[in-house]
Amino acid sequence: MVEVTEEHLDSVWQVRTRSFGMGGDRDEWNKTARSFIVDGRYLGVLDGDELVAAARVWPYEQWWGGRRVPMGGVAGVVVAPEYRGRGVGSLLMRAVLNLCVEKGYPLTALYPATTVLYRHLGYEFAGSRQLYTFEAADLRTLGGRRTAVRKAGRDDADLFLELAAKAHEARRSNGPLIWPRAEVESWLEDESLFAYVAEDGFVVYKWSDGNLAVEELIAGSEETARALWATVGSGASIAKTVEACCPPFDPIHLMVEHEAHRKSWQNRWMLRLVDAPAAFAGRGFPDGVVLEADLRIDDPELPANTGDWRLSVGNGSATLTPAEPSGDALRLGPRGLAALYAGTPLATLRGAGLVSGGAALDAGFDAVFGGPAPYMLDDF
Ligand SMILES: CC(C)(COP(=O)(O)OP(=O)(O)OC[C@H]1O[C@@H](n2cnc3c(N)ncnc32)[C@H](O)[C@@H]1OP(=O)(O)O)[C@@H](O)C(=O)NCCC(=O)NCCS
């Protein structure tokens, strides 16, 4: 296992092309790849001098229960075709998990092209990225005309981050990423993206094949939601539809008259807890919900998570502390732990064989981990 360096970039590009097909602008790709190389977040597998596999880890933060938890976003996992099916992908992913430990990410997440490799290593489905299509004409008439909306510029980056944070804290969001400031600035400078801001919300959208596509819309009130969606819908004389990645419980679904294609598209992502005590301490929990429960975690890949634990939840926070073994403990491996963390109902976890024991507290676990369905707006 090696850290990918500048001299490996040609080989990585070749393996990547053989894995995903021709992949866009090489200069752009080099630039992004170097951002992973500088602080050792690009790993590779060598056979002699030849680089035969690679994966990289984004230094993200994710909202969980309305709080920010650092998360290593795994991407670009590729093994050269002639080396596949021999354990190279697993070797690489084990090194990725250890890198997440080293970097101090309590969580890691990824969009899987195949679940098998990742499930073997303890990842499980946790949420999805969903795309909906609305009639532009329906959005145009949503109203909100009393709300002032202005064009946004580069100097609004901090305001955008602040408005997004306020909304995610208030909604106790699960899943969405927190963008680095530089990324928000680059949207605001990009001439193909149109950004507008109101007192408690903003929208970023663009043209997409003759129709419009919303990249992100945050609204702190009904009036602002109406005003921002109507701003996008004002393009209805040219655009028939507006595509939007948004959560399934976004207020827009309860305001708009039709879903243009009456179907949504979703791409699921998987989660894994890297450091269970830090992952529990970092996320938020519903106020007023209290739980004291014993857990028995068996994590063969990351043995620091293995053991008997006491989970104490109260005042919107939780601690996971080492405990004596208990016959009443909820027993689970890393896949069950990830799915539980993401709010999967206990009945589902039992139905899939991902947890056992501790049945008396199922309703308590559901109350503690239940909340808005986890989602992401970004692909990586
Ligand atoms: C997916 C990929 C990284 C797997 O690498 P690999 O070296 O073949 O993986 P391993 O040999 O370690 O296999 C680990 C497990 O995953 C399974 N697996 C690997 N590829 C699979 C596939 N395409 N479909 C189903 N299972 C697969 C293996 O059978 C093995 O499970 P088993 O031990 O129960 O048999 C590799 O096939 C690849 O580069 N594919 C193209 C790019 C891609 O899809 N990357 C993933 C992006 S998320």
Short description:
The chain is α+β, with helices and mostly antiparallel strands and 380 residues long. Helix content is 32%, strand content 31%.
How would you describe the overall organization of this protein?
This protein has 380 residues and is an alpha+beta fold. The protein is built from 13 helices and 17 strands. The two termini are 23 Å apart. The protein has three domains: 2-122, 3-Layer(aba) Sandwich (Aminopeptidase), CATH 3.40.630; 130-266, 3-Layer(aba) Sandwich (Aminopeptidase); 276-369, 2-Layer Sandwich (Nonspecific Lipid-transfer Protein, Chain A), CATH 3.30.1050.10. It is 32% helix and 31% strand. β2 (42-47) and β3 (50-64) form a beta hairpin. Strands 1-2-3-4-5-12-6-11-10-9-8-7 form a twelve-stranded mixed β-sheet, sandwiched between helices. The structure holds coenzyme A (COA). Coenzyme A (COA) is lined by residues 19, 77-79, 84-90, 112-114, 116-117, 120.
